[in-house]
Amino acid sequence: xxxxxxxxxxxFYNLKAKSIMTKAVFYHAGCAVCVAAEQMVAEAIDxxxxxxxxxxxxxxxxxxxxxxxAGVKSVPALVLDGNTFHINYGASMEDVKKLVV
Amino acid sequence: xxxxxxxxxxxFYNLKAKSIMTKAVFYHAGCAVCVAAEQMVAEAIDxxxxxxxxxxxxxxxxxxxxxxxAGVKSVPALVLDGNTFHINYGASMEDVKKLVV
Lengths: 101, 101
What we know:
Number of strands of chain A: 4
CATH topology of chain A: Glutaredoxin
Shape of chain A: elongated
CATH class of chain A: Alpha Beta
Low-confidence stretches of chain A: none
Largest sheet of chain A: 4 strands, mixed
Oligomer: homodimer
Strand content of chain A: 25-35%
């Protein structure tokens, strides 16, 4: 007889969360439009569904290539599970590159 | 002696939800860009915090004035607690008005 499978409630929810969590990346460059959008995104995104990462190009210019590959043309932008959404308009990626690279 | 205050768990959560729920309105006009953004917004917004309403101007042209007052310049747009965020670019409000009014 196999032993019963015992999963604590905490582990169950962690496992469930890992299996359904979707990656969300919010790219910005610290501009006023970016900061307003960051507050909205951080507050509004369902943290039970999305694992949200905030990337500030001023502190992580090495992430620019990955953002451009995902189709980010301006900041702020939110990439949800590979789909890119530009939220308002702060600066073009060309301007971001001039400032931080 | 006052009777004890009895609140069922369901009522407690309903009361709690009502007190902290913030209004979110997603305005769109049925365009391809709008539909992609609508799916994202409906999926990603934390339904425990936001009471999300989807407004399609093609079906509710009487809501155009209220959207413009909130600062909506193009669709799709998300108004979160009075703050307007334009998500990508589908059509200007001028074009929307030409189509639906």
